Amino acid sequence: SAVISQKPSRDICQRGTSLTIQCQVDSQVTMMFWYRQQPGQSLTLIATANQGSEATYESGFVIDKFPISRPNLTFSTLTVSNLSPEDSSIYLCSVEANYGYTFGSGTRLTVV
Amino acid sequence: GDSVTQMEGPVTLSEEAFLTINCTYTATGYPSLFWYVQYPGEGLQLLLKATKADDKGSNKGFEATYRKETTSFHLEKGSVQVSDSAVYFCALINQGGKLIFGQGTELSVKP
After folding, report:
1. B27 to chain A, minimum CA–CA distance in Å?
2. Fewer Cβ close by (within 10 Å): the C or N end of chain A?
3. What percent of chain B has a predicted confidence (pLDDT) above 70?
């Protein structure tokens, strides 16, 4: 199944700044997914990124706060903008593979 | 809407004890069902899956059977090890193709 390289693995950012997270897949995939996992919580889908079109955002998530790029079939970025302490979470990307989903190792973001 | 409900944690067991983590779901049709595991400080790994009723998924000594009649997919292991300490997530893929997670159950195994 697909292998995902996600980076950075962790970062500490000042409030008001932005963080861009990258995911590289070792094979071409149609859709890539971005999730947020708040401390002690389950995963929540932020958006679905398709190559060549705008991402589709879930309720409660907006493009201005979480802009996504999908320049080709193996790569995507998620930016978390105008950071506040409430954005401290683990962010994960995912792709569909073999009747399941494969996840990146996650980016642990701490906003101070 | 579609949802997954897991038993609350944390669950604390002694090594070699029997493990059951309950999972029930609400969904239209016949969703595919999954268990994912998240070891401390790591991302999610697929543990096992089942795609139709009465299927049994198994991996690393863990098992779960897709029970349509009770809309359940309980995770079991006959003898847990300290290395099994992790957070376990039950999940489904619904008719719209979305992956929906339960809230996660933390398992702590003591020597």
Report:
1. 17
2. C
3. 100
**Is A41 within 8 Å of B49 when comparing Cβ atoms?**
no
Q: Decide if A37 contacts B89 (C-beta within 8 A).
A: no
Residues of chain A with pLDDT under 70: 99
> Could you tell me if B83 lies within 8 Å of chain A, comparing CB atoms?
no
Burial class (CB in 10 A: 0-12, 13-18, 19+), A1: middle
**pLDDT value of residue A2:** 85
Residue of chain A minimizing CA distance to B103: A42
Please list every residue in chain B whose beta carbon sits closer than 8 Å to the beta carbon of residue A103: 36, 43-45
Residues in contact with A29: Cβ distance below 8 Å, sequence separation at least 6, in sequence order: A2, A73, A74, A95, A96, A97
Distance CA(A33)–CA(A49), nearest Å, equals: 6
Selected residue of B46, B51, B88 to mutate for chain A interface (largest A Cβ count, 10 A): B46
CA–CA gap between residue B68 and residue B49 (Å, rounded): 14
CA gap A89, A105 in Å, rounded: 13
Distances (CA, A) of A11 to A18, A34, A95, B50: 11, 17, 23, 36
Q: B43 and A101 in contact by Cβ < 8 A?
A: no
- Reading the block at residue A103, the tokens are 């996840």
Determine how many CB atoms are found less than 10 A away from the CB of residue A35: 25
pLDDT at B98 over 80: yes
